[in-house]
Amino acid sequence: MPHAEGEVPPRHGGNVYQLARRLNRHPRRILDFSASLVPFGPPRSLRQALRRALNDHVAPYPDPAYQALREAMAQAHGLLDPGWVLPGNGAAELFTWAARDAQSFINLLPTPGFADYQRALATWGVAGRSLPLRLHWGDGPQSWGDALAEPRVLHSLDPRHTALWITNPHNPTGQLWRRDSLEPLLHTHGLVVVDEAFLPLVPGGEAHSLVSLAPRFGNLVVIRSLTKLFAMAGLRLGYAVAAPERLERWSRWRDPWPVNGLAVQAGLAVAADRAWQQRVWRWLAREGPWLTQHLNRHCPSLRVHPGAANYRLLSWGHSLTPLQQSLAQQGILVRDCRSFAGLDDHWLRIAVGRRRHNRRLVAAMAAGLRILGHQPPVTGAQA
Fold it and tell me: Angle at the Cα of 378 (from 372 to 383), degrees rounded to 5?
């Protein structure tokens, strides 16, 4: 929900439970467009696995090596050795260990960017260096080189001493980086951490994944999340793909059993669920353009930036905080972008939802903008 001036907005979207208490509503009656999860999950296979797990996988400790889950994830990516995969308590835990590995490097953080990378680095007393990106881009996969606004930042450094943190597709802009524009970075930087949390949702996105390059590049870490694709954020499950010796080091550093038994069984149930992924691709290919089109039609004072991910970045020439507050009063959460370095209260990020929820969002945003006096009256069909 919106925050008072001077407060730091949350790194991971709005707080559904806090807003539900404020409005005296059940949390399920809150429309959460601040968290970019598949809106019709989790899949039946996951729910069935959790019911079975309640009988067999709550009392015993999980396998501390997570061998079955590592094998399933490795097989899903065509990796012969499960040692190349390490499950984690969500991607956030794995960022923490990647940051510990990156202590000796100059850490380059593209901005705007996800605040959790800086959180992970700060855990070890490390500060990142901003690498500004252009905030104007087109449709389709982008070139990493074309996106840089200040390439001189790189030219002043010895790349071998740098760690580069990349999100693909980028968060919060939704830009999809082409694989052929990312691979050259692995030949120069000392460490490259690629967050592919949203990539499995993007139709055709897997073609731009760097997972298959991990056996060739010991300086590559790819971090994936299962929470977005399978709508299981509450279970906290992600995994890293990197050289086995690096992942063995991470295993020695972290707490015992960071992934609980229910999350393990959930991961095993969905590891190779390609039918679900294809359903998600069909939904996003349909609803992403629909949402962009109707926002452009009914909220013409807003700029809707193109994106490949299951969210859209919006900007305006005025503060969007009053609009965000108006939506919250109606039980609709959108993402406050002030937690992204380089963005301010002129920006919002919204998830792509179900059609009926997207309609409600567009109508509420159009009405809110009209009340604020920055929106012309609606003359066409309603959203």
Answer: 105
HEC letters along 23-45: HCCCHHHCEECCCCCCCCCCCHH
- DSSP secondary structure code for residue 2 in this structure: -
Beta-strand relationship, 191-195 and 162-167: parallel
Any residues with CB less than 8 A from the CB of 258 and at least 6 apart, and which?
88, 89, 93
Of the candidates 178, 170, 181, 194, the residue with the CA atom closest to the CA atom of residue 312: 170
Q: Which residues face 335 on adjacent strands?
A: 349
pLDDT tens-digit readout, 177-212: 999 999 999 999 999 999 999 999 999 999 999 999
For residue 25, give the amino acid letter: R
Q: What are the φ/ψ torsions at residue 186 (nearest 5 degrees)?
A: -70, -20
Structure token digits, residue 62: 């999980």
pLDDT in tens, 278-304: 999 999 999 999 999 999 999 999 999
- Residue 129 tokens, joined: 């260096």
Q: Are strands 191-195 and 129-132 parallel, antiparallel or unpaired?
A: unpaired
The SS3 of residue 364 is helix
pLDDT tens, position by position, 366-379 = 999 998 876 655 54
Nearest to 276 by CA among 69, 33, 42: 42
Is the Cβ–Cβ distance between 308 and 319 less than 8 Å? no
- pLDDT tens profile 300-355: 999 999 999 999 999 999 999 999 999 999 999 999 999 898 899 999 999 999 99
Contact criterion met (CB below 8 Å) for 352 and 310: yes
Token pair in block for residue 114: 């996800």
- Name the residue type at position 337: C
| Separation between Cα atoms, residue 104 and residue 100, nearest integer Å | 9
